[in-house]
Amino acid sequence: MNVFLLSKQFQAVLIYFLLITFSFSLRAADSPLLIKNLGEGHYMVRINTNQKFFLLPVEETAPDVRISMIINNEEVKWLDVRLAMHKVDYFVPVDISSYSGRTISCKFKLQTNDPLHTNFSPENTVCCKEMRLSDTFDTANREKYRPTYHFSPLYGWMNDPNGMVYKDGEYHLFYQYNPYGSQWGNLSWGHAITKDLVNWKHLPVAIAPDALGTIFSGSAVVDYDNTAGFGAGAIVAIYTQSSDRQVQSIAYSTDNGRSFTKYENNPVLVSEVCDFRDPKVFWHAETHRWIMVLAVGQEMQIFSSPNLKDWTFESRFGEGQGAHGGVWECPDLFELPVEGTNDKKWVLLCNLNPGGPFGGSATQYFVGSFNGKEFVNESPSKTKWMDWGKDHYATVTWSDAPDNRRIAIAWMSNWQYANDVPTSQYRSPNSVPRDLSLFAADGEIYLKSAPSPELLKLRDISKKRSFKVSGTRTVKEMIPGNEGAYEIELTIKNQHADIIGFRLYNDKGEEVDMQYDMKENKFSMDRRKSGDVSFNENFPTLTWTAIESGRNELKLRLFVDKSSVEAFGDGGRFAMTNQVFPSEPYCHIGFYSKGGSYKVDSFVVYRLKP
Ligand code: FRU
């Protein structure tokens, strides 16, 4: 073998690669994107364009890169992006249209000292080759798990619902949003509106991070009497800003939420406590002032204000009450009538993470009284959960909903695995909207969560059956054209069965098994064989709830939407929400009985329209 010749070939290959590398790392001097290496994980990208988007390639397992966008020597925006090092999982768009015609200098800085990544430089990362400018960004759905009638962001990460307020025929939904990746980060308030709680219109980001921090959870009110001086009827958002500490800020909108102006004297409320967040504000007519409930460590604190700007501490609630397995977050406080009586009681929603009944996050609530200063729980020894599944968190309600309705929505995930669920264009959706009311059982007052009546509008073709189950009974192809979005309405009469069971399943053998245990008085949902459960050890679970004893007739509504099952028993006296990731829709159902038989008086399946 001619060694000299080989090394010549090797040299040629090397020169070729060097040339390629050199040309892409700098790009042409007149290119609208000029990349310069600054060494040790720093580099500079200069943008000169009239195009709308700077598209950044993301690799979900890569470390964050802090991008600081500078115009005329001032930082105008910063964001953290998991820039692709080895492969591109997806792109995220940075809207640069408001800087059109200006030169933007972007400083990139790797956010880790991990030696594994310190070789980060334009020459050896995919992102520099792939980042580009564009006038368009494709938001067409790419996810088979995307629900059709639940709200989900077009792209990017979502957690808590925020700022829910109704005004002029529109329900506003703001939400914890990362526009620059499908994992938690860059917290901003995303925004959508709906007129009917089932059809959503996506709007641009409403409130973005600033020098006081990222925009965490909070609420919004309509200031009809102009108490804050931003204008009568202004929508005022009250939210936490998070950096090293957490403080409360406000912003207002005089165009029905289409744009917000941040109050110049933010923050409006500060503390020495580090977990100090998620303000829920409402107008308390009796004392004629605004009330704020705030989650502070493992308690709720109540403040009052005449004008949304100046806040006075009133009281604290929490010690010795309910579950304390984690921090308390995202409170809500409202009054509801007790069904069948002339009584009204106050409900304090208290989201908790971790410490839920099946691990991770969950929503507990307290029922009692509120006098404008203090909330008193009437059953201090009881812990009450609003939903008995694993994927029902950060539940809050709409302010000013019409007809005195109290409508709640939850984030349909769990902090144990929210960042790992097997979707990437977006993560994760919300629950269906639920109308809340109170009912009495066994001397206690409980919260009932009924699917909002607007969901009836989604019903498309249906099929009704009735039959007896003694042993097993299978219904193959429950409904024609089943793409995984349907509702099941069941009325069952027990005829001495110990177990009344039914499993939704597909041809891959994946299933969600549900059971009424009539001896133990329990309802359960088992998703351990529901499809992909491997992405996190906390995902495969069986969840269950106690049901009232001595019932012979059982009523259940199941809402299935591609990657979730929500069960509502007896009009919402219990609710159970769980995500599932089957490789194809569950098109069949298998009923079974143990220890006796039961009659399915009515089994109706509705295909639901998107
Ligand atoms: C609840 C929560 C809130 C916080 C927000 C941050 O899920 O932790 O307490 O404001 O998420 O995204």
From TrEMBL:
Instruction: Tell me which SUPFAM superfamilies the record gives.
Output: Arabinanase/levansucrase/invertase, Concanavalin A-like lectins/glucanases
User: Which GO terms fall under biological process for this protein?
Assistant: sucrose catabolic process
Q: Which Gene3D superfamilies match?
A: Exo-inulinase, domain 1 (2.60.120.560), Glycosyl hydrolase domain, family 43 (2.115.10.20)
Q: Please state every residue range assigned to the domain named Glycosyl hydrolase family 32 C-terminal.
A: 454-606
Recorded GO cellular component terms are:
cytoplasm
Q: What range(s) does the Glycosyl hydrolase family 32 N-terminal domain occupy?
A: 150-446
SMART domains recorded? Glyco_32
What are the residue boundaries of the DUF4980 domain, all occurrences included? 39-149
Is Hydrolase there in the keyword field? yes
Q: Which PROSITE patterns match?
A: GLYCOSYL_HYDROL_F32
UniProt keywords, alphabetically? Glycosidase, Hydrolase
Pfam families tied to this protein = DUF4980, Glyco_hydro_32C, Glyco_hydro_32N
Instruction: Give the protein name, as stated in the record.
Output: 2,6-beta-D-fructofuranosidase
Taxonomic path: Bacteria, Pseudomonadati, Bacteroidota, Bacteroidia, Bacteroidales
